[in-house]
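# step 3/5: fold
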Amino acid sequence: MDINRLIAQSSAGVRITLPSGEFEGPLIVTKPLHLIGNNTTIWAKNGAVIEVRAAGATLENLRAEITEGSLESAAIIASAPAAVNGVEVLGEVRGFGSEDGHFDVPRTIELGAFQSDAENTFTLTVNVPAETAIECAAKGVKFSPNALKAGRNELSITVSGISAQTLLYAEVMFKSRFKRRIYLTGRPKSDAPKADNKRIYTAVERTVESAVGVQSPTPPKPVSAQKTDVISLDEPQSVLEMSRGQRVPLDKYLGTKLKIRFTCEKPTGMEIDPYAFLLDENEHSLGDEGLVFFGNESSPKGEVTYFPTDGHIEIDIARIDYRVRKIALAYSIYAGNSNNSFSAVRNPRVTIFDDDAERIAFVMDGLTHESTVIALEFYLYKGEWKISAVGAGYNDGMAKLCNRYGIEVEG
């Protein structure tokens, strides 16, 4: 659907409920409309993702996301007074008064290894443009303070009572007039040292601008480049480093023939094998032939192939059966090995090649007691193939995953 055309065909002052899904921007609002999202994401490679040019427009319950370039670019720009309600943004905003400052909080707060079943404390310094509330529903995680003032803030995180059998992975919402979602990760271990006010991040100190644009007399300090979620592949030999939970359109980065390799540092004798599931719209395998692995080296139409010589997987998007809506790629440690969890595996990296050139990589850090991990999902959404970085799995091997996809195996 062309949302800009929908806006052009609508009368001023009406309420429009946008369709659910992801839509490429930029979205230009040229009328005083009330746009209401319904699990709606507007994205663009670079800002602005949404531009409001009409006074009296309202944006509600939608997400604006920059997928390439610096997150210091403005995702939403208002050149006329506009209202926002429940709008999530990945990037910055312009034209919203005090909200226009820099939001300097890491996209992922990585705690690293810490002592399980104990109270661990971490500190970080962050910059927020306006008064901001912090919300985190994860059990055993506390942010203090949970209400930040505009500007520079010292923040502490207390993690307590988390067992070694649990991977800490939590969503944290920073809420001002806009919402910004970050992720908190960590690895509780019984043999890890207890963290006591361990400093994990310090935001760059910046000059402050008022809402009317008057700069403070403090001389500016150098600003380091911020890591973006997506690296542009227009430059030679550039590689997209995906993070857990990220989704990207496949055709923006790859052709139709993909080669996928798994590399890691692992104990001698440990065997890790790939498994590719071809799934229908109900996430059920297309029979036993819908599972490609060392015991079945090719799917019926050859769209997915396992190569036993080095264990890599190849996917030919152009040959995929019309019934297939998703391909889930998993890696599993051989059950007969005594070191049967990813806690013993370092730097587990999945790399996708196109014409033997490395194009996309995903490091599945933070794994602990999982013995089987879903690494990537290739899925069809509104006629377009996309890639999702999953990096999550099961402690009890392949049996549970096979059963989930409708393949009966013995536990």
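# step 4/5: annotate
The chain has two helices and 31 strands.
# step 5/5: archive (pending)
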